[in-house]
Amino acid sequence: MEWTGYRIFLALLLVITGSINTLSTKWADRLTSEGLDGESTRFVHPFLQASTMFLGEIACLATYKLLYWYYSRRQPGSESIEKATAGNTNFNALLLFPPAMCDMISTSTMYIGLNLTYASSFQMLRGSVIIFVALLSMGFLDRKLRCVEWTGIVFILGGLSVVGMSDFTGSSSGPHKNQNSIITGDLLIIAAQIITAFQMVYEEKFVKDKDIPALMVVGYEGLWGFLVLGALLVPFYWIPANPPFSDNPRNVLEDTPDGLVQIYNNGLLLLSVIGTFVSIAFFNFAGVSVTKEMSATTRMVLDSVRTIVIWAVCLALKWQDFSYLQVIGFGLLLIGMCLYNNVLLEPAFKKLQRFMNRRAIARAGLGEGNDEDEEGGGTTRYSVFSN
């Protein structure tokens, strides 16, 4: 695969905006601001943050519309050729309602978990989605896993266990009050990956073959998610909830007016919310483009790089202390992901096979020369591995 300037730009955009998205969300969780009661409290509004994320996804739909208009104006018919806009636009938007609901539930749950645990653990634990996707694919897509994929899953399970252990031994200068809250956050993040896995399997079974432009898929899922979650914010205003799931004056599941007042009263908090909105839009665009320009495997590798960036920033900002267990856990997770996505063994085997081919050919040439010298021009054929 040739790394052109455009592909390098996409890779950097994916890593940078993906890292900003997680870090800006976590930054907001750590900030305090004056709310409706006049008291300065921590910003604990996961559902309001999830709504911001869906607004960022809606921006992808707006981007698609602008690109479609631009290409059609520039040259009629080019809108059906360009990668960003090509595809089937004649589909029922309700087809994307179920995955949008999965996205809404999983994102809200993950943001609650992120409030309770570390940003680095949040990013690493999201790797557990591979396990649930694999199991659900066997049940709903009649897929059979190869031995190397099962091996990858075993490594991922080991990595997740070690990351969980690191949270018991780690410490933080932030709002994590006790180990019970941290492990609750970890479990919520893993539980959210089950819902995310349902979303991925549904999209592969019902959406993939429709050839819908990826920006439209992201945009419509964001639209459905924002509409439903926006409506749910009303009953959430009246549902009681106690810490650590709530830290607003009324002790309810989501106090949207209080959250908006806190954002208004703290410029840094507003900046973090804007960072979440902008980064999720560019992150989705970069992810779609990387998958189209390169491959889904490349996107997985870049997502691992994003984990390293988030981890390094958290350590630099002293949001958490260094833990060697996280190093081991991340290593196991990375190996497992590479094995599952066929990044390690088969490519290495093919390289070894090509090396053996070259050696066999070289020996064949040397053998022919010896045979000619010894047998007066006779030739000997050697069998070699096929490339």
TrEMBL record:
Subcellular location: Membrane
Keyword Cell membrane: no
Annotated TM spans: 46-70, 91-112, 124-141, 153-170, 182-202, 214-239, 268-288, 300-319, 325-349
Superkingdom of the source species: Eukaryota
One GO CC annotation: Golgi membrane
Spans annotated as Disordered: 368-387
Keywords: Membrane, Sugar transport, Transmembrane, Transmembrane helix, Transport
Protein's membrane topology: Multi-pass membrane protein
InterPro entries: EmrE-like, Nuc_sug_transpt, UCP036436
Single GO MF annotation: pyrimidine nucleotide-sugar transmembrane transporter activity
PANTHER family, per the entry: PTHR13146, SOLUTE CARRIER FAMILY 35 MEMBER F6
Family as reported in the entry's similarity comment: Belongs to the nucleotide-sugar transporter family. SLC35A subfamily.
The protein, known as: Solute carrier family 35 member F6
